[in-house]
C-alpha cells in the first residue's frame, strides 16, 4: 500500500498563491515565502495576523510546521537578522524550530473573497461590491480594497456599534463610533486593517457608515463635518482576524492538512478605561 506523502512548503505556497497571487500585492508590500525549506513537509499550519513572539510560541506549542501570516515580518528593509535584534530573534527561533513563514497581505486584501469579505460577513452585509475596485493586474471579478454592502435591516449607529463589538473578536480597543447615535444605518462600507486612506471612497459610495481601523482625528473630523458617513473604528487585529478562518478552510480543503487559527489578540492596545458618560440615546 502506498502511503500518501504530506504536502511540502512548496505545495502550501502554491495553494495560497493560486487564490492570492503575489502580483496583486501593492508595490510597497512584501509578500510570499519569508523562510523555510521548500521541500520540507507540512502537516500543520498556524494562521495568524501577526508574526510576533507570542504567535511563534503558539506555533511551537501546537506543533506547526508553517505559519501563514497576514502582516509581513520584514516589510521594511533590514541589514541584519542577528539574534540581537527583535526580528532576528524571531527568525532564528523559527529556523531552529523548523517552522516556515509565509505572508499574504495586500494580495489577500484585494482578493474576492478576501480580507474585507470576511469582515463584511461578520456584520451580515449582503450585496457586496468593492469599496475601491482593483486596478492593473488585479482588476476585475469583484476584486478591490474594502467592501460596500447592505444590512439585512436598518439600525441605528449606537446599535450597529454594539453589534460590531459583539460580532468582531474581543479586544481592549472595542469599537468606537463617530456620528449622531440615533443616525439610521442601512448601507455600510468596511475595510479590514487601516482604512483611513479610503474615507473618500466611502463618501463617494454614499454609505451611511464606514467601519475600519486606525482612523485619525483630523481626517475623521473633517469628513464628518462635510456630511460624510458615520464612522466606526475597531482594533486593527480584530478587523483582519475573521479572514484567518477562510484561509484555514481553504488550506485544509485544498491540501488535507491540519490548520489552526490563532485567537491570540496581537493588538498592541491592552487596556481601555472608558470615561464616565451618560448613556447614549438609541
From TrEMBL:
| Residues the entry annotates as binding a divalent metal cation | 70-71, 109, 236, 240
Q: One GO cellular component from the entry?
A: cytoplasm
NADP as a keyword of this entry, yes or no, is: no
Q: Which SUPFAM superfamilies is this protein grouped with?
A: NIF3 (NGG1p interacting factor 3)-like
GO MF annotations in UniProt: metal ion binding
Keyword vocabulary terms for this entry = Metal-binding
- Subunit-level organization: Homohexamer.
What protein family is recorded?
Belongs to the GTP cyclohydrolase I type 2/NIF3 family.
Q: What is this protein called?
A: GTP cyclohydrolase 1 type 2 homolog
The species is Planosporangium flavigriseum
Amino acid at each position: 500500500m502506498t502511503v500518501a506523502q504530506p504536502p511540502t512548503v512548496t505545495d502550501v505556497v502554491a495553494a495560497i498563491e493560486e487564490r492570492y497571487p503575489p502580483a496583486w500585492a501593492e508595490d510597497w508590500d512584501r509578500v510570499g515565502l519569508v523562510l523555510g525549506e521548500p521541500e520540507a513537509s507540512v502537516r500543520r499550519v498556524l494562521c495568524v495576523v501577526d508574526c510576533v513572539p507570542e504567535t511563534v510560541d503558539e506555533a511551537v506549542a501546537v506543533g506547526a510546521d508553517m505559519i501563514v501570516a497576514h502582516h509581513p515580518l520584514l516589510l521594511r528593509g533590514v541589514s541584519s537578522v542577528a539574534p540581537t535584534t527583535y526580528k532576528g530573534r524571531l527568525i532564528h527561533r523559527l529556523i531552529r524550530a523548523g517552522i516556515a513563514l509565509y505572508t499574504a497581505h495586500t494580495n489577500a486584501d484585494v482578493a474576492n473573497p478576501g480580507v474585507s469579505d470576511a469582515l463584511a460577513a461578520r456584520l451580515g452585509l449582503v450585496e457586496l461590491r468593492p469599496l475601491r475596485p482593483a486596478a492593473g493586474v488585479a482588476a476585475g471579478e469583484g476584486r478591490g480594497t474594502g467592501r460596500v454592502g447592505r444590512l439585512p435591516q436598518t439600525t441605528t449607529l449606537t446599535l450597529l456599534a454594539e453589534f460590531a463589538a459583539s460580532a468582531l473578536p474581543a479586544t481592549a480597543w472595542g469599537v468606537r463610533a463617530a456620528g449622531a447615535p440615533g443616525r439610521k444605518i442601512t448601507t455600510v462600507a468596511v475595510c479590514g486593517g487601516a482604512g483611513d486612506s479610503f474615507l473618500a471612497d466611502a463618501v463617494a459610495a454614499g454609505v451611511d457608515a464606514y467601519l475600519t481601523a486606525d482612523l485619525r482625528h483630523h481626517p475623521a473630523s473633517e469628513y464628518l463635518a462635510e456630511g460624510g458617513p458615520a464612522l466606526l473604528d475597531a482594533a486593527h487585529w480584530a478587523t483582519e482576524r475573521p479572514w484567518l478562518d477562510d484561509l484555514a478552510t481553504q488550506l485544509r480543503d485544498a491540501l488535507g492538512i491540519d490548520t489552526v487559527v490563532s485567537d491570540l489578540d496581537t493588538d498592541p492596545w491592552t487596556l481601555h478605561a472608558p470615561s464616565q458618560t451618560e448613556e447614549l440615546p438609541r
